Amino acid sequence: MKGWPTRALADVCQIRPPKGEARRGISDADLVSFVPMEDLGIGQKNLVPTQVKPLSEVVDSYTYFADGDVLLAKITPCFENGKLGIAAYLSNGIGFGSSEYVVFRPGQSIDKNWLYYFLSRESFRKEGAERMSGAVGHKRVAGKKWVVKKLGEVCDLFQGLAINKGTKHLLVEDSSLPLLRIKDLRDGTEEQYVAEVGFPKSAEISPNDIIYTRTGQIGLVFRGRRGVLHNNSFKVVPRSELDRGYLFWWLQEPSFRQSIIGLASRAAQPDITHKLFKMKEIQLPPMNYQHDAVNKIEELYGNTQRLQILYQQKLERLAELKQAILQKAFAGELNAQPEKALQEAAAA
Q1: Which of 41, 126, 327, 345 is in the most buried spot, having the most CB atoms within 10 Å?
Q2: Contact in structure between 74 and 271 (CB atoms under 8 Å)
Q3: 9-141 architecture in CATH?
Q4: Residue 232 above 70 pLDDT?
Q5: CATH code for the part of the protein at 151-285
């Protein structure tokens, strides 16, 4: 209407509230509402949940929301059909549901009912449908200039070296190329080596390459090593539209990891095959956003690593202090004043 201010949804709502909120005040064993896509209604304003699950079963793999949030299905045909609702009557005020929900938390400047009816408009659904991206039958409402692609469309995969009768002659006592099995990648050990000629060059990796484990401890991601990759992992090489660092961190995103491991584990012998990996989807923002996201993630990761080292040093110092106090106590040297005794023990 003329004279009314116009704002982007992101300016008046919090989109996809953080899951960390769900753990505040409740334990993993407490029950929360669970809302699969089929329970989200069409033309039904208030969502009435019918299922509950322990928090621990849903917190890693599903979309989080709370009482008063507005849920919108983002995948076809649910989006076009108008699957939408206001979360209400949730167990412990908390709900989890399909990864295909967009969750809007209205800010102070917008009423949840107004937001619901705004999203219910046919014109909104029509505009959203025109901006959908993804494979036929699996299109989603995407962010501006973001696209959804299958990993097989933006990555090339290279198999590691299988050690068998035909290749065991390649194992040598020592060389500059360690054979990198999962345990070598994880623990840094290098017990076997590969001759520098005669092996498939596609199995050779450099410190910049991304390694994805396919058997055993499936779904682990590594980089920063040089050697020849064992067949229990494969090398993932991004194409031009995908930043290497963005791919490295995407493969560790909890919901992606949980999803692909769940699919692989259905087999009698769990295995993330090339076919399974390539069919999984990745959200691709513009390249400049990919670069910025990687820089921010790696900065935060570096900070957490430094904090981890600092606190480990503090724990070791506390353990030493405890032993010093015990030694003084049983040697009859402990001062009757506790604070002074602690100072003396710390200085010892």
Answers
A1: 345
A2: no
A3: Alpha-Beta Complex (3.90)
A4: yes
A5: 3.90.220.20
